[in-house]
Amino acid sequence: MGKAAAVVWDQSFLGYDLGGDHPLNPVRLDLTIRLATELGVLDGVSLIAPDAATDDDIERVHEAAYLNAVRAAPHAAWDVGHGLGTSDNPVFERMHEASALIVGGTMEAARRIASGEADRAVSIAGGLHHAMRDHAAGFCVYNDCAVAISWLLDNGFDRIAYVDVDVHHGDGVQNAFYDDPRVLTISVHQNPMTLWPGTGWPAELGGKGAEGTAVNLPLPPGTRDGNWLRAFHAVVPGLLGAFRPQILVTQCGVDSHREDPLADLSLSVDGHRAIYRALRDLAEAHAGGKWLALGGGGYELLRVVPRSWTHLLATVLDRDVEPNVPLPPGWVSHASRLAPNRPLPSSMTDAADTTFTPWGGDGDTPVDGAIRNTRRAVHPLHGLDPDDPRD
């Protein structure tokens, strides 16, 4: 990496709080920054505090009437609709302000890259990929990923690749750019027959004039690190090579972990670390080194998210943390006070094996079937041979 990477963070991000025992608890962000700090990952790094996104920014992908509903929701005495006030998307005080700040953080990260100040930037508070044009969905009020991509399209970029490794389909971003051939969206997720939102099939390929720019790789429940990485490397690098993006935007949700309470893939913290290193390599190989990394889902708040996203921060900064590094006593003490009956890991690893056998065009496992289905749907639209593992 040449230029120093930009890390966007401010304690105000913790205001995006859906309350009570909602799975998307902002403590996961606080614990991540505490862990990265105590491990020295952020030594000498000036954390960038963003401004909230303006209405004009947010209305790049959301309707003005929806913004008005979000503003009014905390004070409304009636059902405001727009997906607000549900168990997934409960209303909370200053919801618009907190959501606009998340968008502002992702936009600030994008600006740092577009201005040439940094080649890489990361905002772990971002990655709210389910929000739709006129409604909240899946814990997401405003779609910061889509807003930033839209802004980048108007500020020097006309070929953008978005890769989403969250366990849930990146439906909001796919929908926002389904008809736009300038944006390649790739989502690697649990099979939608077995998990919300029920979309993300290989046949979802993009609208007229943008065929092949929506890519979906659904994997069976129980998929572990080796098979996940086998599938990822069988699909993603070849498509990025054919598309030739100018920047790689990634949503790095960690709800694919085997301990996550809301989904059924079986990855490890070590698998997540391997994914981030692969994304870094792909940005260098296919996007001129330009990489915008965002957070996303992840609901094992103490044991998984802080370790996985500390690895993400370290990878973006080229300060890779070795898996066997012990967790700092100060961090363990703080986390233990939050959940005294929850055993904590002792180090930055799950001691998982992340080796994988590259796809060779053969194999008859469910994962191999998923690879073939996606490649046969998409690869010919990019001039690639779906049955040739070299493509």
Automatic annotation (TrEMBL):
> Matching InterPro entries, A to Z?
AcuC, HDACs, His_deacetylse_dom, His_deacetylse_dom_sf, Ureohydrolase_dom_sf
Q: Would you kindly state one Gene Ontology biological process term found in this protein's UniProt entry? A: epigenetic regulation of gene expression
- Would you say which domain of life the source belongs to? Bacteria
Write down a Pfam family by its short name. Hist_deacetyl
The record's keywords, sorted A to Z, are:
Acetoin catabolism
Q: Name one GO molecular function term.
A: histone deacetylase activity
Pathway(s) this gene product operates in, as recorded in its UniProt entry: Ketone degradation; acetoin degradation
List, alphabetically, the Gene3D superfamilies matched: Histone deacetylase domain
Positions of the Histone deacetylase domain:
22-315
- What SUPFAM superfamilies would the database entry show? Arginase/deacetylase
UniProt keyword annotation of Phosphoprotein present: no
Does Protein transport show up as a keyword for this record? no
The family note in this entry says:
Belongs to the histone deacetylase family.
PANTHER family on file: HISTONE DEACETYLASE HDAC1, HISTONE DEACETYLASE HDAC1-RELATED
Q: What is this protein called?
A: Acetoin utilization protein AcuC
Organism classification, top ranks? Bacteria, Bacillati, Actinomycetota, Actinomycetes, Pseudonocardiales
